[in-house]
Fold:
Amino acid sequence: MSVEFIGYVSAREQTEILDLPGPAIDPAYIAATALVHEQGGFDRVLVAAHSTSPDSTLIAQYAASVTSTLGLLIAHRPGFTAPTLAARQFATLDHLSQGRVAVHIITGGNDRELEADGDHLSKVERYQRTSEYLKILRREWAGGTPFDHDGEFYRLRGASSVVLPFQPNGIPVYFGGASEEAIRVAGELADGYALWGEPLANAAELVGKVQAAAQHHHRSLRFSVSFRPIIADTEEEAWERAASIQQQIEKRQAAVLPAQNGIALDHAGPSPTEQTLPTNEGSRRLQAIAAKSARHDDRLWTGVTKATGGRWNSTSLVGTADQVAESLLQYYRLGIETFLIRGFDPLTDAVRYGRDLIPRVRALVEQEDTLRRKSG
Structure:
């Protein structure tokens, strides 16, 4: 199996511990971050989507314009754009970038945040719409004669597109969501399934459920897991940095919460003012894991998860580059081939991941695969 690394590009520098003043869109920062990831050996970067954030497709287009090989994983919410139009938009960018586009489907788990864009469907209805949306997306990407569609959410007559995906195998569709509804849709229609960083046993359980759903449709999926690695020269220094990050987040929350009751800025790095309880199963799973312990397995840490309520990708692997690489190898052995990693200090951490972590993981995976071939 080939291992894949996904980083993160946002419209401006912002994380749970960084919220610098400035414009909502910083082209220089987008370009610098994209280039750091490309030069660091990342395969793709995620561009997030949220009801208040700059448009993910346009940010991805700008990142593509300043890079030459870096792939783009564009977060996209079904239901806000007609599926036929979205199919053409992604296919167009896929040609402009010469086949570097992938799409990460976000059905949405925060009812209040979705209502900001006028989406008042229930969770079950949203996944039903997502299923229909993806079927139309794939049908238009397939090309051929114009087609009609009569569904619960969309009615089409003579739909077709002159622009198709750049690559013969199309545009990869990644999918997130840990609920039963999400797993059913992923098993039928996704190419990759993304889960947040959970302990090995929990991750194995979720991978097994998704594999079973995919096998029901005679399909197989690629699996991705997301972490916020905290790396230092020594293990002690790494844990000290982890404690400092948690303290900074808690301090910011204490300063901001009494005065504000706002909505998160984006799903991957929201403001600490988000007060609504998450309604998605992935967040509930993280909350339950954090409630049991701050540390799991060898070095999985849930300090930020506890501080933020598990509302987004917030679990960390803490240690030296060698130690974190060994931990990632454990997830690879579960059948997880993609690692989405992003730091709390985006540019500095991305440089370190590219220099110290990614080469170590790739070497370990190559050794693992060699041993498998010899033993099999």
